[in-house]
Amino acid sequence: SAVISQKPSRDICQRGTSLTIQCQVDSQVTMMFWYRQQPGQSLTLIATANQGSEATYESGFVIDKFPISRPNLTFSTLTVSNMSPEDSSIYLCSVVRQGTVDEQYFGPGTRLTVT
Amino acid sequence: GDSVTQMEGPVTLSEEAFLTINCTYTATGYPSLFWYVQYPGEGLQLLLKATKADDKGSNKGFEATYRKETTSFHLEKGSVQVSDSAVYFCALSDRDNYGQNFVFGPGTRLSVLP
Fold first, then answer.
1. Residues facing B86 on adjacent strands
2. For an engineered disulfide with A29, which of A95, B3, B53, B56 has Cβ 3.0 to 4.6 Å away?
3. Which residues contact B89 (CB under 8 A, 6 or more apart)?
4. pLDDT in tens, B8-49
5. Chain B residue with minimal CA distance to A38?
6. Which residues of A touch B43 (CB under 8 A)?
7. Quick one: pLDDT band at residue A1, thresholds 50, 70, 90?
């Protein structure tokens, strides 16, 4: 498996501000994803983080609201911009390791509360 | 498109009871199937997987068999423990024209009482 860390683990933010979440993996991976998990709900894919190019966003998510960077094979950031209480959620980073095509490994998540 | 359906929770069992969580899927291709577990306050952990028909995935006493004829991947455990209390997600991975596609079910919350 891959060891994945996320920072911060949790935060409470005021509406209108932005928060950047970091995801660091201990080994090179082929794919990195960002998910949102609202309380008591399943996972919703926000985007695929592509190394050295723009992320691929799912329907309903846009780059202006959720800018993503992936400067190398082991690191990515997700920014939640101009936050509102509706953005309160858990944000999860996941990866697919090199040598596998379909096993995802997840970070511990970042619990965001917007007041 | 691909989809995953799970039995609705919450499921409440006594310790040492038998567990079944039903999962069915629809897919255009030939997917790999997974069960993930999420303990309180944590991310998802891969519990087990199966990649082809009649394969049985197993881990930590949990089992699931890939049934292509019924498009199902039901999770079972013979004797649950309090420490198994968590949310369980059934998922599939498939390849389409755009690359690798991952789909998660809605999750089933399991509570095991001592």
1. B110
2. A95
3. A42, A43, B6, B35, B36, B37, B38, B44, B104, B105, B107, B108
4. 889 999 999 999 999 999 998 889 999 999 998 888 999 999
5. B106
6. 4, 92, 106-109
7. low
